[in-house]
Design brief:
Strand order of the largest sheet: 5-6-4-8-10-12
Shape: globular
Largest sheet: 6 strands, parallel
Number of helices: 6
Strand content: 15-25%
Order of helices and strands: HEEHEHEEHEEHEEHEEE
Number of strands: 12
Length: 283
């Protein structure tokens, strides 16, 4: 209604994660819309990208015989047989570049997925990062490839990034909107939302943070990657710096992961490429 009253055509409207829309606003209309009492904020739709040092190729995700337990999975105590709970009856929404629905070590639910129409005709991963993340979370405990932290969890693909791993805040919000619309309709229900993506913090973060807070208020756990920029603190990143999320940085799983400059790096210390440091807990 607000868009129509101001002669605008929204590209996408939101009714759950936030109440608003995304679209182009001509400069001559901006001040008039800002003075509309129904409008709480106008923010720039900022670009986001996957947190990866290099794009993972889907060809690299092809299955190989024999299962390996990653050192990281062992380090967090989640190797098969070490924990009684392996993710049964837990749905995990992977908000990323999609998932490889043909990979036998993942088996995501293809009929319960979301994708931004501009980025494809399905939530099939055309980049590789989402599949990589999905494997860390829930690669099956079988005789293929690797095993994930929670191999019995169910993955739901939420494709909000294109084949280059790029997207916008509004794409993420659209994915979170789908999660909120379906959280009570899926079996198993979504209980965890993973976002291994983001950008540097800026003045226009209120819409994305409000969308994330909507998920948390529904009882969902939102986990984000801290990022791969050692020059930043976690509080400098979005969505990792939001106080509503659990931000995860990278640590060295083994002692001796040496580097010509840094020398021997002890286990359980921050990886030299990761974003770590202070977090904003004041809101």
């Amino acid at each position: 209604a607000v868009a129509a009253d101001h002669g605008l055509t929204p590209r996408r409207a939101f009714t759950r994660a936030i109440h608003g829309f995304v679209g182009q606003i001509p400069g001559v209309s901006l001040r008039r819309i800002q003075s509309d009492p129904r409008v709480s904020a106008i923010v720039r739709d900022c670009a986001v990208k996957v947190f990866a040092e290099a794009a993972e190729d889907l060809e690299d995700s092809e299955s190989t015989p024999g299962q390996v337990v990653p050192v990281g999975v062992e380090r967090v105590g989640a190797a098969p047989g070490n924990v009684a709970f392996a993710g049964e009856d837990v749905g995990v929404a992977v908000v990323d570049t999609g998932l490889d629905f043909h990979h036998p070590d993942l088996q995501p639910l293809g009929d319960a997925s979301f994708w931004v129409p501009e980025y494809g005709e399905s939530a099939q991963d055309d980049h590789g990062h989402g599949t990589h993340v999905g494997g860390i979370i829930a690669a099956r405990d079988n005789d293929l490839d690797v095993v994930g932290v929670a191999p019995r969890a169910t993955l739901y693909a939420v494709k909000v990034l294109d084949k280059k791993g790029d997207g916008y805040d509004s794409d993420i919000i659209a994915g979170l909107e789908w999660i909120l619309a379906n959280v009570d309709l899926l079996d198993p229900p979504i209980k965890v939302v993973n976002l291994s993506l983001g950008r540097v913090r800026g003045p226009g973060d209120s819409a994305l943070r409000a969308a994330v807070a909507s998920l948390v208020s529904r009882g969902l756990v939102v986990v984000t990657a801290a990022g791969n920029d050692a020059s930043k603190d976690v509080r400098d990143m979005v969505p990792a710096g939001f106080p509503e999320v659990i931000a995860v940085a990278s640590t060295c799983a083994q002692t001796g992961a040496g580097d010509p400059i840094y020398g021997c790096i002890p286990a359980d210390t921050a990886s030299m490429f990761t974003t770590d440091g202070r977090m904003d807990r004041t809101g």
